[in-house]
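Incident log, support desk, overnight shift.

02:14 A customer reports that sequence design results differ from what the structure should imply. Their input is reproduced verbatim below. On-call engineer (initials T.W.) acknowledged and began investigating.
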């Protein structure tokens, strides 16, 4: 789903009905679109529309690449699929649905019923054994029906049947949202976990909680384990950011310690094993024998210390993020569950902990009451987790109605948000809504998220379509058209195109070219590598670096690139500006100054720019011509270089590269180079500039 810059600007100025009419009909009518995909497009367009219309929005437009805005989802945000037992889900919802009715309900809520299947059918598909089809068909009637539901990637509270049923009950049946509370445990009586300073070397953060009086059965236990797996795959990024450990509290004794020790000093019996392992031997065991756990081993394998959690008796609870200890494994008989989440991201660890305790707190002796745990960090600061208080957010009613193009009253908007499990209070003057975001809705970060929830509760199909009063058509930017023209001409001249990094080191950008750092380069704050310290202000170093890396190729070597350079600019709101340039280099046993000069003449001929003094009639019509003059650029050889001028300004330079520069880039042969700013030549057939500020 692509939006050009012009269309994006148009959509930002229209009511959302008109924007959606264009996006869903005018822009995508030729593409087959399922209801789920159309609702996903709705989400994207709504978020884009909200972003551009936000009062604080000043640009630049996100994800613009040469004038196009691309609405896409990051690979990490792929919609997870949750398999739930149909009858168990309907039992929690208090009524039954036909498959079609439930699919319609899912669509209303913005989720999708992806498939209706059974365990045997799923196994047959996964194992790809057609000969078992008949057996699976025979047993299908007696087997439990599974619903595979696609859940939005940021709705962590809906990754289990408990969360799905709770959300749909509130949405459809008006059930009151759950109220999550902390048990009033005095701090001296709380379980305590102390963090040792050494954990900062590997996984510095940990949060904990206790669920008391949990009543497990086979279905609840399976859902409890499945939720942890889904969180590990999604929010926890395969345990690299957060790892979850759950333990039978009756088998261990507090206070607990979170430590980091050399692997040969950690010994315990891991889950699903019968003998004791040292931590380093266990890593190798999993690499050799366990297909599931081996992918997590590299997270800590090369660390000098491994994280480990001990109880008061020095019993190992877990070796995060790899495995729990067998001693504290939970079972169907477990009543008190100790939950610890370790990680490198404290915010995500708190979200994961809140999700688990809120989803399964309903099975406690006192439903939705969680016992807190005191965590003392390495600096000695004490914090009580989990943090179940609601977050507060104020959203103007005008922002909701203005974005959606509706005329909802404050009370009507509040009712819609209550269907999405949000607490709402209407301001005294009715101009705003004070939102209380429960701990389960970690996806609510901004006013546009609240607007999205109003749109879901109100119903996508209930938002009227409106033909926009303004019509425009997306097209390629003139500068990009010019770029494509020059790429083709350079290729026909025998040059090979290269595509290089926009970031480089200071030495490559200045010192290697024998140029002074004039302060025009945009510097990268805290660069991850010395090779990416600044944004390039010239294309020449990258072209020469490519030559140096391919010096063994057959001569002559002819390379070119048409791309952007970045320079600091106080006149632009971003503090920097891009400039489109063409660079070409020619490497042979002889310098080939005349070859690169010939390419300059050909480029100007294609652009319709005459050489000064050669065609007075064309010069008069165009109002622009080009010329060259001797220069003193230290990157080029003295007396074998020139600057290019057009329209009264310097637009480029060409010449033979200085031998010291060639030595810096490890190039053994002479090189001639050309670099030209092509933006002054972006005009129509009447030589009227086509450059537009984006």
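02:41 Re-run completed on a clean worker. Output:
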């Amino acid at each position: 789903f692509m939006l050009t810059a012009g269309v994006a600007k148009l959509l930002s100025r229209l009511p959302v009905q008109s924007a959606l009419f264009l996006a869903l009909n005018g822009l995508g009518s030729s593409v087959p679109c399922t209801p789920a995909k159309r609702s996903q497009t709705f989400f994207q367009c709504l978020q884009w529309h909200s972003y551009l219309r936000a009062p604080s929005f000043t640009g630049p437009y996100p994800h613009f690449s040469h004038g196009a805005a691309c609405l896409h989802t990051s690979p990490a945000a792929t919609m997870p699929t949750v398999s739930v037992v149909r009858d168990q889900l309907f039992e929690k919802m208090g009524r039954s649905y036909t498959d079609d009715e439930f699919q319609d309900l899912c669509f209303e809520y913005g989720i999708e019923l992806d498939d209706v299947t059974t365990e045997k059918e799923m196994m047959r598909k996964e194992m790809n054994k057609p000969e078992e089809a008949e057996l699976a068909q025979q047993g299908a009637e007696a087997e439990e029906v599974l619903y595979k539901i696609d859940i939005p990637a940021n709705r962590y509270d809906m990754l289990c049947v408990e969360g799905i049923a709770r959300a749909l009950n509130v949405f459809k049946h008006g059930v009151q949202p759950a109220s999550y509370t902390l048990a009033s445990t005095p701090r001296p009586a709380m379980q305590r976990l102390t963090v040792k300073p050494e954990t900062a070397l590997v996984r510095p953060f940990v949060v904990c909680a206790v669920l008391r009086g949990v009543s497990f059965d086979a279905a609840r236990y399976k859902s409890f384990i499945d939720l942890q797996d889904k969180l590990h795959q999604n929010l926890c990024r395969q345990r690299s950011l957060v790892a979850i450990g759950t333990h039978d509290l009756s088998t261990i004794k507090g206070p607990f310690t979170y430590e980091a020790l050399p692997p040969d000093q950690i010994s315990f019996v891991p889950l699903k094993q019968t003998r004791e392992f040292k931590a380093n031997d266990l890593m190798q065991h999993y690499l050799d024998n366990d297909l599931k756990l081996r992918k997590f081993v590299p997270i800590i394998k090369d660390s000098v210390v491994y994280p480990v959690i001990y109880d008061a008796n020095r019993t190992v609870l877990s070796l995060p993020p790899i495995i729990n200890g067998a001693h504290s494994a939970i079972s169907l008989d477990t009543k008190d569950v100790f939950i610890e989440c370790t990680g490198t991201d404290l915010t995500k660890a708190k979200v994961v902990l809140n999700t688990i305790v809120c989803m399964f707190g309903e099975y406690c002796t006192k439903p939705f009451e969680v016992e807190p745990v005191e965590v003392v960090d390495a600096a000695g600061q004490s914090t009580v987790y989990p943090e179940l208080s609601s977050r507060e957010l104020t959203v103007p009613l005008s922002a909701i109605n203005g974005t959606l193009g509706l005329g909802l009253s404050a009370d009507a908007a509040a009712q819609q948000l209550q269907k999405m499990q949000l607490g709402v209070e209407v301001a005294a003057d009715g101009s705003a809504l004070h939102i209380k975001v429960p701990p389960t809705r970690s996806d609510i970060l901004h006013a546009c998220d609240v607007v999205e929830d109003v749109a879901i509760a109100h119903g996508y199909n209930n938002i009227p379509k409106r033909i926009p009063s303004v019509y425009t058509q997306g097209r390629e930017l003139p500068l990009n058209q010019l770029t494509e023209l020059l790429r083709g001409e350079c290729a026909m001249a025998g040059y090979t195109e290269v595509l290089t990094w926009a970031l480089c080191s200071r030495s490559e950008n200045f010192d290697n070219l024998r140029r002074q750092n004039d302060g025009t380069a945009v510097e990268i704050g805290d660069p991850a590598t010395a090779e990416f310290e600044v944004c390039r202000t010239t294309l020449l170093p990258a072209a020469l670096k490519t030559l140096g890396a391919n010096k063994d190729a057959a001569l002559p070597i002819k390379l070119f690139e048409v791309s952007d350079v970045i320079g600091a600019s106080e006149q632009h709101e971003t503090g920097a500006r891009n400039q489109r340039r063409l660079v070409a280099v020619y490497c042979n046993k002889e310098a080939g100054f005349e070859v690169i000069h010939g390419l300059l003449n050909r480029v100007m001929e294609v652009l319709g720019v005459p050489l000064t003094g050669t065609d007075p009639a064309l010069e008069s019509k165009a109002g622009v011509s080009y010329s060259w003059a001797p220069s003193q650029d230290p990157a080029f050889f003295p007396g074998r270089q020139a600057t290019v001028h057009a329209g009264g300004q310097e637009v480029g330079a060409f010449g033979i590269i200085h031998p010291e520069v060639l030595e810096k880039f490890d190039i053994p042969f002479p090189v001639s180079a050309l670099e030209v700013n092509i933006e002054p030549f972006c005009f129509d057939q009447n030589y009227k500039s086509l450059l537009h500020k984006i």
